[in-house]
Design goal:
By secondary structure, the protein is of the alpha/beta class. The protein has a domain of about 170 residues: NAD(P)-binding Rossmann-like Domain (Rossmann fold). The strands form three sheets. Strands 16-13-12-11-7-10-9-8-17-18 form a ten-stranded mixed β-sheet. Helix 4 links the parallel strand 2 and strand 3. It is globular and about 80 Å long. It starts with a helix and ends in a 14-residue tail after the last helix.
Length: about 450
């Protein structure tokens, strides 16, 4: 985006209030959607909205013509095509935008969309930095926009039931929760890719946007951007935000109190990635509960014996979550015999030399439970929730504040890893209390002329 184009757009947005751009939608109105970013995940989200008859694709935007053409062919109508996202925001037929660009573009597009009076669906992770996320929250609140972040598990009934069950004390006090990103990318990974001249200088400059200007490298673009810190928080934000969001939902917790991390490029994968192939991040949440993200990208063995993405260990049982399904395995808890009295020095009833000889036994603390969720990676229910809330002006299942809190947990995990430190987190001030160097990493300086407004 050139400086002139953004300035012109800001001026036009200032001439018309946010409310003048958006009309009041009735229950039977079809929501006009503009899609910004249509590769890979953008295409998947477009498909999810196409499942619903009360919305229509009125505009598509991407730097690649082939991506836009593919989206147009799928659409019921013939949407307008734009290479500049501000043109989508100026389109009066667009009621809401769907942003599925690389992470480093989310904040600018989201904020501009809110100022233009558009409701916003934005893919996770919400932002590249904590400061961006807070600005997005404040802008959405100030402009009164309906927002949905793409942590789509918030709209799955099976996960709602899991969260309700854990928060009601179903597995007792959860002392530890773990989540896993497991795959084997060794030895080739993304493959070697030298810096070279870009196919299009204009496209490369616009792809970089606010990120630092660097030589073109094909490994940095499109899906592979997730392996480079200028555009992504790596797999910790790509997958970890999903998992941490579900875990803190189950725990009924918002932000962690502290975080630490360790890991690196241990396997010598033969590419120019920046993110670790091996990583552990540990957060301490209220409860208290220890939450751990484990990333193993040079070995594809399951993270747990039950091949779960997440596990929550409670005093009465353990919940294993595999994709949309979950089950609970009861814990066998000591049942002291009638008349057992610790004061007489018998010791722990589980102690082989103590209480066992006085008749202590182990019994299941609860009944096993299980739940089956959707068979496919379901985004349609999340899209449905967004469309419904556009019409009712209600709060979405994963509004911008919910997405910000979950994304922040992952982002500060990356900061802990980069600073090799244990960080104490003040969630109200959104700053670290024990490390000023870490606070400097809460945002970065945008490449001119881009500004976080």
């Amino acid at each position: 985006m050139t400086e002139l184009t953004r300035r012109d757009f800001a001026r036009s947005a200032g001439l018309a209030t946010a409310l003048s751009y958006s009309r009041i939608l009735g229950a039977n109105d079809r929501v006009g959607l503009g899609y910004i970013g249509l590769g890979n995940r953008g295409d998947q989200v477009h498909d999810a909205f196409l499942e619903h008859g009360d919305c229509r694709t009125v505009a598509v935007c991407d730097l690649r013509e082939d991506y836009m053409d593919f989206a147009v062919k799928k659409s019921r109508a013939t949407p307008a095509k734009y290479k500049e996202y501000t043109k989508v925001l100026e389109d009066k037929d667009v009621d809401a935008v769907v942003i599925a660009t690389p992470d480093h573009w989310h904040a600018l597009m989201f904020i501009d969309a809110c100022h233009a009076g558009k409701d916003v669906y934005v893919e996770k992770p919400l932002s590249l930095t904590v400061v961006e996320g807070r600005k997005m929250v404040e802008t959405a609140e100030r402009t009164g926009r309906v927002t949905q972040v793409g942590t789509n598990r918030r709209s799955w009934k099976s996960y709602q039931e899991a969260a309700d069950f854990v928060r009601s004390g179903g597995i007792g006090h959860v002392t530890a929760a773990r989540c896993f990103h497991v795959r084997n990318e060794w030895p080739v990974g993304l493959g070697p890719a030298p810096d070279e001249a870009p196919p299009s200088d204009w496209e490369w400059d616009h792809w970089l946007g606010p990120a630092p200007k660097v030589p073109y490298n094909r490994n940095r673009t499109y899906y592979n951007f997730r392996w480079f810190y200028d555009y992504s928080g790596g797999q910790l934000t790509n997958f970890g935000v999903h998992y941490v969001d579900v875990i803190r939902w189950c725990l009924g917790q918002d932000s962690p109190r502290s975080v630490t991390a360790i890991g690196g490029k241990y396997a010598g994968v033969q590419d120019n990635r920046e993110i670790p192939d091996t990583l552990q991040v540990l957060w301490e949440f209220g409860g208290p509960t220890l939450v751990v993200f484990e990333q193993y990208n040079a070995n594809a063995a399951p993270g747990t014996a039950r091949d779960a993405e997440m596990e929550l260990r409670g005093t009465n049982g353990t919940m294993y979550i595999r994709y949309a399904n979950w089950d609970v395995v009861p814990e066998r808890v000591a049942q002291a015999p009638e008349g057992y009295d610790h004061s007489k020095g018998y010791g722990n009833p589980l102690d082989r030399e103590g209480g066992r000889r006085f008749g202590a036994s182990l019994k299941p603390a609860m009944e096993p439970r299980s739940r089956q969720g959707p068979a496919e990676y379901d985004t349609t229910s999340h899209a449905r929730n967004f469309l419904d809330c556009i019409k009712t002006r209600g709060k979405c299942n994963s509004d911008v504040l919910t997405g910000h809190i979950s994304t922040t947990a992952a982002l500060i995990g990356n900061i802990a890893h980069k600073t090799r430190s244990h960080l104490e987190w003040d969630s109200k001030a959104e700053r670290f209390t024990n490390n000023e160097r870490a606070n400097e990493l809460l945002h970065y300086e945008y490449r001119p002329p881009y500004k976080l407004g």
